Amino acid sequence: MAATKTYLTGVKPTGEPHLGNYLGALKPALEAAREYDAYYFIADYHALTTVRDPEVMRHNVRSVAATWLACGLDPERTVIYRQSDIPETFELTWILSCVTAKGLMNRAHAYKAVRDRNAAAGNADLDAGVNMGLFNYPILMAVDILIMETDLVPVGRDQAQHVEYAADIAGSFNHLFGDGYTFRIPQGVFPEGDASVLPGIDGRKMSKSYDNHIPLFLPENKLKKLIRRIPTDSTPVEAPKDPDSSVVFQLLTHFADADQVAATRKRLEAGGMGWGELKNELFEAINAEVAPMRERYEQLMAPDSELDDILAEGARRARERARRVLAQVRAAIGID
Ligand code: ADP
Ligand code: TRP
């Protein structure tokens, strides 16, 4: 039997997760974790390129970890850790910087996007607002992946280039120093199709950047209020309605079981069911799924919870692997 593949992903602690992140990323990743040797980490040093408030950083790091755990990550099976707890990462970042062409970094999408924005704004300095962390971001990400000998990296499509860069950078090192150590070449794993895209309260894809999202762990009363605020048309209660043109109904299809969805569809089409009642149904369906996780999340976020011990244990396990890889790399380059 082939050895279990190593499956690794990182999440930047830049804000509270929403229902789209839950259905599109968290839930599938937790299901996959059961079949692989899985490593999930919080990319706090990546977030430092934008997060400048220490309290926000502290809060968000714990919040990401608590979210994974509350959603069902089993820390016995899956290694969960903070990137910053693995100092070997930063040593390897220097080493791999020395085998990475600057031109490769110049072509990175995130960096190029800032330059394009500056050009469009008529700014003569195309690098305005670019810090070296943003520029070097892909190398640090490559190291996150390579130092754990990762086979598979589940990420959104927007991260595809970063995973390709990790493979490229590994290739450059292997070409130069492959007699001493060869990095495993990682592959991205991407979500398929649009079927899994959850709409936001305005009908566009749910996204923090559209401000149309429903936070995953919103307190119950706020969740109810937010759902009440989803815009609907003024069709009277008795009139037949088209379920497929209603965002509330679309959201319901992601949280209620198939029988309930079919029954609700019939009632809307027949007339007699108002938007208010549909919204109540949606609230109940979402709340039934998130309430137990919300409670666990709040326990974990308490200052003296077991969260910090879980992260410390994850770091210990991740570091064993990182130390072993770094030692081999150092020997291969002649710095040992
Ligand atoms: P946002 O658009 O809110 O900034 P991110 O781009 O940070 O979200 O997405 C993080 C992860 O959550 C990605 O893997 C992405 O595919 C998933 N995701 C985000 N929004 C949705 C959505 N509306 N439906 C399904 N998955 C989503
Ligand atoms: N860049 C990723 C994002 O913005 C986060 C990340 C950092 C990551 N290091 C990683 C993802 C390594 C996968 C593997 O979403």
From TrEMBL:
- Alphabetical UniProt keywords: Aminoacyl-tRNA synthetase, ATP-binding, Cytoplasm, Ligase, Nucleotide-binding, Protein biosynthesis
Cite the GO molecular-function annotations of the record: ATP binding; tryptophan-tRNA ligase activity
The residue numbers the entry assigns to motif 'HIGH' region are 13-21
NCBIfam families, alphabetized: PRK12556.1, trpS
Question: Which of this chain's residues are annotated to bind ATP?
Answer: 12-14, 20-21, 156-158, 198, 205-209
Q: Name one GO biological process term.
A: tryptophanyl-tRNA aminoacylation
Enzyme class, top EC level, equals ligase
Catalytic activity, reaction form: tRNA(Trp) + L-tryptophan + ATP = L-tryptophyl-tRNA(Trp) + AMP + diphosphate + H(+)
The motif 'KMSKS' region: which residues? 205-209
SUPFAM superfamilies, sorted: Nucleotidylyl transferase (SSF52374)
Compartment(s): Cytoplasm
Q: Which family does it belong to?
A: Belongs to the class-I aminoacyl-tRNA synthetase family.
- Per UniProt, L-tryptophan binds at 144
Q: Which GO terms describe its cellular component?
A: cytosol
Which Pfam families does this chain map to?
tRNA-synt_1b
**Keyword ATP-binding listed:** yes
Protein name, entry field: Tryptophan--tRNA ligase
What's its EC? 6.1.1.2
Q: What does this protein do?
A: Catalyzes the attachment of tryptophan to tRNA(Trp).
